[in-house]
Amino acid sequence: MYLLCTIAVSLITFLFLKWMKRRRLCMDLKRLDGKTVLITGGNSGIGKETAIALAIRGARVIIACRDEEEAEKAVREIKTISHNINVLHVHLDLANMRSIRDFCKTFLQREKRLDILINNAAMPSVLDWTDDSFSMCFGVNHLGHFLLTNLLLGRLKESAPSRVVTLTCSAYKYQKLDFQDLNYNLFPFFTYCRSKLANIYFTQELARMMEGKGVTAYSVHPGYVQSSWTCHYSILFRAVMRVIMFMFFVSCEAGAQTVVHCAVSDDVVPHSGGYFTDCRPAALRPFAKDSGVARKLWEASERMVKLA
Q1: What is the pLDDT of residues 138-149, one digit of tens each?
Q2: Residue 116 belongs to what H/E stretch?
């Protein structure tokens, strides 16, 4: 009897965890031949799975990241899986504003199109500083992508209809922005939450500014994903999180589905500026829909990255 109960409980637990991790698939198989896609952090995790999915659809895929060795390895894997040789890597360090400007200058010289920009790269909850003295989370997750997108906005408009997809996280709901201290860097999880909230405001303001100009923007919560973000932490933390991720987190391929959906599906076009999860629009907390805050953050960000 004890054995039967143990088996039953184990089976129920397994089915429950499987149910919790269920995700919709992006069923839009639209071809992207002749389109150019840029993915930050496309060498691993969700970024690499997104690169594979879009390369399979025929796109020219450029992955931008700072680890040259990992990037070249990822390029080979993406080419092999997708049977698409039009995949390449360009060096980019989002923690360094000079690197972002140099990257954009090189990109604009080499590439005549930019149809889809996917702001995927992110730093987890860490207390560190960028080369320009911004908190690592806010500097990479928001300011780095803010500057990158702005410097490439002209090419996006020239390639219209084009899209900007920015990855965020549902953890945005646990913090609000403090404009007296946007460079907040005290509690790691809080600074991460603020950077993810900034991603949402950035998407909303970008969509508003690009209305009628052929560029649409979407923020995506991919779910909690079994990726390599724990590499920034101790061995003990990684060991504990490995168990938790195995039980509750989804695969990188599953996490990439909503990103791909927002990159290719025509269903998302009426929802520019929207927040998506599990391949459909999702509701935001009221404070995360404040257009006045979104505009104020945009203006503050322009000053911080010296665009204004």
Answers
A1: 999 999 999 999
A2: strand 116-119
